[in-house]
Amino acid sequence: MPALQYNQWEFLPSELNDTPSHNDGINKDTEAANRIKSCNFLQAVGNQLQVTQQTLRTACVYFHRFYMRHSMKQYHFFDVAATCLYVACKVEECPRRLNDFAEWCTKKAKKRDNLDMNLKENRDEFNRWREILIHNEVPVFEALCFDLYIEHPENYLEDMQIQWNATDEEVEDTYWFLAQISGETFCLTHEPKLIAAAALLVIMTFSSRTPANATIETAGLPASVVRQLASQMCKCRSL
């Protein structure tokens, strides 16, 4: 029998209670809330920079993986979120200028898109973000072990649409739903294909078109497991 391939980025749910942040005195709920806020922050910055959705997805996965190696007390979560987006832009061949990054990080951190960047206090914050992005880039690469290719759930939706006879609207809504829950840690505990199936099941159920178990299993996944994960997704605090 061939040996099972080890994946350093798949964790047991119990391991999420034993993260560096938790061991550093940050409780589970606070860490979870910080993950959600940070993914929302990087998505807000990324949308202003007009990066691709693939880049945003990759950045969120990088972010979640980083904090399985480091504590939020050691690296502030917004700083790491911005840096993960900066790195993802390079990896996904969607580069943006450092100054543009620093400007939008400044504006989104202050929640003021019309911020006057000529004011000294804002220029100081702009320069601080520049330094953060430059300084944190290497620690992010190292925490990720330079393992930069990400397989996303969205990659499976085209085939599942055919297998499950899902509508274009349902698939479109599934893309939206996956973006909404990107601050959750499903990417650390479940394989991308299972995440895709569970998300599509959630959307089809809301459309009153819940697929039968036999239909779900055409994706090569146990229906009970897909349904269990879909139930968890419906309870996400980020929704």
Automatic annotation (TrEMBL):
GO MF terms, alphabetically ordered: cyclin-dependent protein serine/threonine kinase regulator activity
Transmembrane segments: none
Limits of the Cyclin-like domain: 40-135, 155-235
GO terms classed as biological process: regulation of transcription by RNA polymerase II
Alphabetized UniProt keyword annotations: Cyclin
UniProt KW RNA-binding keyword: no
A Pfam family reported for this protein in Swiss-Prot or TrEMBL: Cyclin_N
PANTHER family for the chain: CYCLIN
Protein family membership: Belongs to the cyclin family.
Name used for this protein in its record: Cyclin-like protein
Taxonomic source organism: Syncephalastrum racemosum
